[in-house]
Amino acid sequence: MKQPERNAVRNANIARQRRDIRPRYQRRGSAIRLVILASMGTLLISGCGDDADEHARQVKADKAATNDPALIKQGRYMARASDCSSCHTTEDGADYAGGLAFATPVGDIFSTNITPDTEHGIGNYTLDDYTRALREGQTADGHLYPAMPFPSFARLTDDDIEALYAWNMHTVVPDSTPNRASEIPFPLDMRWPMWLWEKLFSPLEPWQDNAEKSDEWNRGAYLVQGPGHCSSCHTERGLALQEKAQTQDDDGYLGGAMIEGWRAFNLTPDAKSGLGSWSEENIVTYLSTGNLPGRAQAGGPMADVISYSTRHMSDDDLHAMAVYLMSLPALNSQGEAGDAVNDGDHDVEKPLATRFNQGAPADDVLALRGQPLDTRSDDNNLVGQLTDATPGDRLYLGHCAACHGASGGGTPGGDYPSLFHNSVTGSVHADNLAQVILNGVERESDEHNVFMPAFDRRLTDDELINLMDYLDNRFGRGQQKVSLEEPDNRRQQLSDKIPDWRDE
Ligand code: HEC
Ligand code: HEC
Ligand code: HEC
What we know:
With 504 residues, the protein is mainly alpha-helical. The chain has three domains: 37-201; 215-343, Orthogonal Bundle (Cytochrome Bc1 Complex, Chain D, domain 2), CATH 1.10.760; 366-503, Cytochrome Bc1 Complex, Chain D, domain 2. It is 39% helix and 5% strand. The protein has 18 helices and ten strands. The protein has helices spanning 3-21, 49-65, 69-82, 84-88, 127-136, 150-153, 158-170, 193-201, 215-225, 231-234, 280-289, 300-309, 315-326, 391-404, 423-426, 431-439, 461-475, 489-503; strands at 101-102, 109-110, 138-139, 142-143, 257-259, 262-264, 291-292, 296-297, 441-443, 450-452. The strands form five sheets. A two-stranded antiparallel ribbon has the order 1-2. Strands 3-4 form a two-stranded antiparallel ribbon. A hairpin with a 6-residue loop joins β9 and β10. α5 packs across α7 (158-170), α9 (215-225) packs across α13 and α14 (391-404) crosses α17 (461-475). The structure holds heme C (HEC) (3 copies).
């Protein structure tokens, strides 16, 4: 081969390898299953001539009235706190030009172009139109699906909505990318039932301070319930896919839920199942960096929340959110009243077994040092491997030890995190561990981007299960030991879920 050809082949190989290991969690939004509700009819609001002129005048007036640098600055901050970009910007598209797919069982829907382009974006929105879209999910074209988190944004204050409008109209660059039609077939695509859904399931009013609570609590509660829409992932949903609770006054609020194949953990201060063993500062560190060494790192959907939203927020605001989270009624893993550390009803001498303190450094892999290589030829591909290595040892050594260390302790600063005392290996839910291994981790941070490769294409199903068992025994709860020869329930359970995990 000539040099240029060789280069081309090499480049193609590198590109292929990159593709194979690229973290593959793709933002896709929550799977809102609206089959029943979406199957009824559509609402079209039509305008007539005079109204249209009047409307155009109002748009102009509202834009002029909000062209204020301080207001725009406040709006930019609220856009971060509300994570608008995470859903309205795709990897290859212009900022806020929409097009991100949200899966539903009957077809994908897509986020819209919210740049101030007058043809394809929202350049013709008055402040009132904007307010209705954010708080009620209502637009001139009909009702939005709650993949747009209007049930939480209903909490936004008039002041913050005006600021968002100012930021949106005056600093977002207009872009003429047309909206993608939903792939939901007629008649399931009809939007008017969403009006009923909103009346039934979106009860929140704009935020008002509670005079009995501190300023910090009030600020935190507003940010968590409203712009932060934390409950859209961390609270279980009911049959119509409504969040079962939207404030601390309803049962189950932020008690943990599944989202896009990940476990969004319990955020209440329960000592065992929640964040009871965290300090407020721990929460601030996690939300500003995504990495709380010795406890938890953020992957998948939470990595996006950190990358695009919380890491841009002020420490004061993050602290206020922590104060609010720590004040929530504690919920145990059954979603019932739990035992909050801050109740004082808690034995500090003997910490409870939580997902944050499982496992210990492993010495099994270190003990293999200097062993001869196996020369047997058998079906298990043991040839060339250390004689006493179990399949788990081999997989761990081959794929993980280079970064996470032979003992699983990671690197001293925690850039490559410890795999014991890690909420993903220590959780009773296997989902996040499988997701991390298969899809890797990608997160933006202030210093450098965080990257763990995806192992989806490098592990067979059997290897994945062996590796997960190894990790569980060494660094996790270690309660579910399985042997290769005797497939048991857990093996079967893991195996049953693999197609979903590989699919996500
Ligand atoms: C969790 C994802 C998500 C977040 C966060 C989000 N949106 Fe949306 N938004 C959507 C989706 C999806 C749609 C389209 C829904 C539909 O077609 O029914 C939408 C629709 C809209 C619309 C209606 C647009 C039109 O074409 O008429 C506006 C306006 C809007 N979003 C503004 C915002 C703003 C401003 C923010 C931040 C304050 C935001 N969104 C945050 C997902 C999101
Ligand atoms: C798009 C879905 C989504 C949203 C929105 C979201 N989270 Fe999360 N969150 C997750 C997932 C999934 C995890 C688990 C991540 C992992 O294991 O790597 C998580 C983990 C966490 C953790 C670590 C818990 C642990 O035990 O390891 C904290 C703290 C947290 N989220 C707080 C928040 C707060 C506060 C908000 C609102 C500002 C929020 N989250 C919004 C999905 C979400
Ligand atoms: C190239 C280096 C590298 C390799 C190889 C690697 N990791 Fe990671 N791993 C990382 C980085 C970087 C992070 C993210 C740290 C952070 O979030 O700040 C991470 C995070 C994790 C987490 C925590 C994720 C979360 O969401 O909480 C687990 C669990 C994990 N890795 C397991 C594994 C396993 C199992 C293997 C082998 C199959 C492996 N890693 C291979 C670099 C690596």
